[in-house]
């Protein structure tokens, strides 16, 4: 938040300043957890801007589920998923361009499953829905089926490739596990999905924040462009 305070609007309560973050740096997570327990959404005052923190389930649902597309991470989500899959499986998922139909189906199923799991925090009847296989729980079950079919298929292909090559030329993480004789499909599926969960949203959020800060600091943008140009030997336009 930036600029003068509009007295006609209601603002969240102030819980401190960025200096409080500095003073509590060694126990920052505990400090922020304590603030969140006192008020689910609060402001921290800074020198040039104010920051809003929220642990309110309604706000989180709005950002991550209900109005997800409004928060400028959609292409970053696709890009980070493509990158994670390339590193883990050596597979071009290409959800950015949508040229891989099965990859697109996996991506959509993964997002639907994530949203359905998130919805459990707000719907105390989710166990009933799961038993009856209705609503969001039905979506979750179908999405998990698509996810499993896709990942298990890729695992089978990787195992077959490893048996044919026998020289360890594949550089992806899954191939490394297979080389170590870790060939149980369920174990490998859990490894793959753990990496996807750990790398997808986190990378996308970091990239979003990075570009936001770069846009606010054009002089830094110029330095980054120059460094990239020098490393790649490509003139920046």
Describe this structure in words.
The protein has helices at residues 18-23, 28-38, 57-66, 74-89, 101-119, 126-132, 135-165, 173-179, 185-216, 218-232; strands at 14-17, 41-45, 50-54. It is mainly alpha-helical. Strands 1-2-3 form a three-stranded mixed beta sheet. Residues 1-5 have low confidence and may be disordered.
How is this structure best summarized?
This protein is mainly alpha-helical. It is 65% helix and 6% strand. It folds into 2 domains: 14-55, no CATH class; 59-216, no CATH class.
Q: What is the element layout, followed by pairings?
A:
Layout (H helix, E strand, L loop, with lengths): L13 E4 H6 L4 H11 L2 E5 L4 E5 L2 H10 L7 H16 L11 H19 L6 H7 L2 H31 L7 H7 L5 H32 L1 H15 L5
Largest sheet: 3 strands, mixed
- Please tell me how large the radius of gyration is: 22 Å
What percent strand?
5-15%
What is the share of helical residues? 55-70%
Q: What class would the helix/strand composition place it in?
A: mainly alpha
The count of DSSP E runs of length 2 or more, i.e. the number of strands, is 3
Q: Report the order of strands and helices.
A: EHHEEHHHHHHHH
When the domains are counted, the total is 2
How far apart the termini lie comes to: 32 Å
Contiguous runs where pLDDT drops below 50 for at least 5 residues: 1-5
Using the alpha-carbon principal axes, give the shape.
globular
Total number of helical segments?
10
Give, in spatial order, the strands making up the sheet with the most strands. 1-2-3
Residue-averaged pLDDT, rounded? Answer: 82
